[in-house]
Specification:
It is a single chain. The protein has 163 residues and is mainly alpha-helical. The chain has a domain at 3-89. The chain has helices at residues 21-35, 70-80, 99-109, 115-123, 130-133, 144-157; strands at residues 10-14, 45-49. A two-stranded parallel sheet has the order 1-2. α1 (21-35) packs across α2 (70-80).
Length: 163
């Protein structure tokens, strides 16, 4: 593995908001091992790209959060001590004139939506029959009892015996 990273100088971490403090710490440690260098990320230049207002990490402390385990604290320190930040201000994901959508994304990024956002979302209903299209999807239920009830209901609707 070390041979394949011999000429590597740049580490690009895309969608970094999904990377948590503990994961960042372990990524840093692994880079040090692979590159054989004790400097941050093994001496690689680390480029974090993505929108910090998008999805948070799952099962880990977000980079902007208050970490508790030692590994998470180390990852948080790496993130908080980054040297250069280039903020891109032009949104190329939405089309010109989609002001309502841009406003919704901004509100979601800051942790909430208002009545206007709710109205906007309720107008964007799918044009297909959701219940019909989802009938064969895997469903997750909060309790075993609810899953058992649904399974029995679906089995009885088959109108046939199961061997």
């Amino acid at each position: 593995m070390q041979a394949s990273f011999h000429d590597t100088r740049l580490l690009i971490i895309d969608e970094y908001s999904m990377l948590g403090c503990t994961s960042l710490h372990y990524l840093n440690e692994r880079c040090k091992e692979v590159i054989c260098n004790d400097r941050l990320f093994g001496g690689l230049v680390a480029l974090f790209s993505g929108d910090p207002m998008q999805l948070d990490t799952i099962g880990d402390t977000p980079l902007y959060g208050k970490p508790k385990p030692t590994e998470a604290i180390a990852g948080s320190l790496i993130y908080r001590n980054r040297k250069n930040v280039i903020q891109l201000v032009i949104d190329n994901r939405t089309l010109e004139g989609e002001h309502e959508h841009k406003r919704l994304l901004r509100h979601l990024g800051f942790g909430g939506i208002d009545y206007n956002d709710w109205n906007y979302l309720s107008k964007r209903q799918p044009s297909y029959n959701v219940q019909e299209d989802m009938k064969d999807f895997v469903h997750l239920y909060p309790t075993k009892a609810e899953a058992a009830r649904t399974n029995m209901e679906r089995l009885s609707n088959l109108n046939s015996y199961i061997c």
